């Protein structure tokens, strides 16, 4: 999926809880992708466990649905932040 800079920051916040690149750099920033095994995957949005850096990504029937659901989930995410 190709994302612009704003979408990339939203995705980083969705996955890790922060839209900031870790101090140790992205080369050491790892995460796992798990299948939540949804009965109707096209009706489910992806979700993330930020502490464990696990992205729960259903097996969507198309790339179009994947992009739509992932962008929607990242845009409506409420991440932790410092005020």
From TrEMBL:
The HECT domain, residue ranges: 1-83
Keyword Transferase: yes
Active-site positions on this chain: 51 (glycyl thioester intermediate)
Name of the top EC class for this enzyme: transferase
Recorded catalytic activity of this chain's protein: S-ubiquitinyl-[E2 ubiquitin-conjugating enzyme]-L-cysteine + [acceptor protein]-L-lysine = [E2 ubiquitin-conjugating enzyme]-L-cysteine + N(6)-ubiquitinyl-[acceptor protein]-L-lysine
PROSITE patterns: HECT (PS50237)
Pfam families reported in the protein's UniProt record: HECT (PF00632)
Aminoacyl-tRNA synthetase among keywords: no
E.C. no: 2.3.2.26
InterPro entries in alphabetical order: E3A/B/C-like, HECT_dom, Hect_E3_ubiquitin_ligase
Protein name: HECT-type E3 ubiquitin transferase
Organism for this UniProt entry: Bubo bubo (Eurasian eagle-owl)
